[in-house]
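Human: You know discrete backbone vocabularies at least as well as I do. Show me how you would write down a chain together with its backbone fold. No explanation is needed for now; the record alone will do.

Assistant:
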Amino acid sequence: MITLTVNARSVEVNDGSTLLDAAREAGVYIPTLCYYPRLPSHAVCRMCLVTIDGESRPQPACITMAKEGDVVETDSRELQEFRKTDAEWLLARHPNDCMRCEVNGFCKLQSFVSENQLEDCWEYVPRGSIEHPEHNLTDHTSPSIWRDLSKCIECGLCVEACGDQGQQQHVIGFAERGSGRLPVTVFDQSLADTTCISCGQCTLVCPVGALIETPHWHDVLHTLDGRRRLSAVQVAPATRIAISEEFGMKPGTVSTGRMINALRQLGFDYVFDTNFAADLTIMEEGTEFLTRLKKQEKLPLLTSCCPGWVNWVEINRPDLLSHLSTTKSPQQMHGALTKRGAFARALGPDFAEGKAEPYVVSVMPCTAKKD
């Protein structure tokens, strides 16, 4: 164990811990924009600079290892002024689009600007130049992921998440140098034309709104508010636990009842459990496996339940396509049954004859489900 002092607070951390780890252990807040715990840190944003007794220059807390006896200060006037200036430079090339941004309220840059009441101090600096025109900044071609690089702060987290330390897809990489540096696709292809498997890890780590999952909630709310169509929603098992953490509950808390009540309050007429279709999927896959085993054909049988996995096979291992099960995923199967099955027939003759169908929404934990 290592003992050091952060803002006059003594703290003990494990060997190999960074100063950022030590600060958090001490309950001291240090702002970060380019840090994500499961990816390598490169200290790009410089927001986490701290001073250490005996060091001539401030050091980035995210990559500086804690040492025995370190005396660290995180909130000196000089450090606070530097962070404000750093953020003001980012604002000089960031669109003032917070009111419409999908990550409004969850954006790290927005939070820092709000906490410190920063204002635009510099003239807006457009990206690119005459010699090197702007890359394509907006891309809504993917059914799962939207890109708006005008909001990018060049933290590099998306590149890491898509690269060797993450999904190893290498769809996103840095182009240009200096102020023109941007995470782009190869030859500026649209995301839909790349080998993206829609896993969504880039959207998970993006600290701003440059990469988001394709939003559909606006259309859902408009439909529910209109009350013109009968609506049904299916809920995946993982979401009823994951949503608990979003509301500050202990990880692992099951919020099935809360979620059902919330969905009914939104206006859904019926709330279903995707687990029902998962049981049907298992039965279907089991039958398919027994059939293939008896014929000794196309073995082993690989699941087709995960659309991200199916995308990966199609792109990277097409030789395995014949081994994928032909069974729909539980979400797909439930959607089909809700629109065309016994439930739909019980709603009335128009639904039974296919003249009308319920408005079906899926609450899923996977970005690739949109693909």
User: Anything to note?
Assistant: The longest strand covers residues 2-6.
